[in-house]
Amino acid sequence: MTRDSGRSVPIHIVGAGGLGRETLDALFARGCERDSLVLVDDHVVATELHGVPVRRPDDVRDGLFVVAIADPGTRRRLATRMLERGLVLTSVVHPRATLAHDVRIPAGCLVLANAFISTGTRLAAHTQVQYNATIGHDSVLHEFVTVLPGANVAGNVVLETAVTVGSNASVLQGLVVGARTFIGAGAVVTKNHLGDRVLVGVPARDRGAPAGMAGAVTERP
Ligand SMILES: CC(C)(COP(=O)(O)OP(=O)(O)OC[C@H]1O[C@@H](n2cnc3c(N)ncnc32)[C@H](O)[C@@H]1OP(=O)(O)O)[C@@H](O)C(=O)NCCC(=O)NCCS
């Protein structure tokens, strides 16, 4: 539990799916008590999970929050909704993530276990680096970037707003990937790409705009 002027401040995890429960696990690993945590979801299937209450977004008022949803557009929409309700954005970093001494974690970020973020890297608000993902030195991750489990972003890479790097994908050093592009699982990105594309394969090929790929981006941030 965090304390603000002696008052307990609950942490709300928005999204009670798999990523929400992984975020809960990161907070347990940080020593947070169950009574300081709240899961928030529009689709409440149980009143509690792992001893933590589950509430609807309209039923929460005060405290801190982080959005545990991988899709960048949904993440932005839910963050706006929580901010409008007066909650304050925070970040969650698993204690077994490794961050270089000069890496700063802005509000809204989520960094899961065994993630590695190298020196000189800059993360913007609302970025996610999920478990076992690695970010090389001097890379820049703009707002709402999502790096899914096991992905490898090499050094000096720029991922523009709301890029998603799929599970086990790689982005080679020095490249720029345009906003909202979705890199499919296992792809190897070997050259610069514009925004609003879906890239798959080795080397990564442009499969067109995300609208044609149901599993890519569901809401435009
Ligand atoms: C790229 C991606 C977004 C496409 O999703 P989709 O729109 O549902 O695509 P479909 O499953 O309809 O596949 C469309 C075509 O692309 C191919 N394809 C899909 N994903 C692919 C991938 N990662 N690499 C290579 N080819 C892929 C399919 O085989 C299919 O080819 P076909 O037309 O020759 O049969 C998705 O497959 C993907 O890789 N998502 C990332 C998943 C991930 O990392 N999850 C981690 C969760 S923790």
From TrEMBL:
In this chain, the site described as Increases basicity of active site His is at 138
InterPro entries given in the database record: AcTrfase_PglD-like, PglD_N, Trans_hexapeptide_repeat, Trimer_LpxA-like_sf
**Pfam families the UniProt entry points to:** PglD_N (PF17836)
Q: Which NCBIfam families match?
A: NeuD_NnaD (TIGR03570)
The protein depicted here goes by the name: Acyltransferase
Q: Which organism is it from?
A: Amycolatopsis alkalitolerans
Q: Where is the PglD N-terminal domain?
A: 11-81
Tree of life domain: Bacteria
Q: Name one GO molecular function term.
A: acyltransferase activity
Keywords from UniProt, A to Z, are: Acyltransferase, Transferase
Catalytic machinery residues: 137
Supply the SUPFAM superfamilies for this chain.
Answer: Trimeric LpxA-like enzymes (SSF51161)
The keyword Transferase belongs to this UniProt entry's keyword annotation? yes
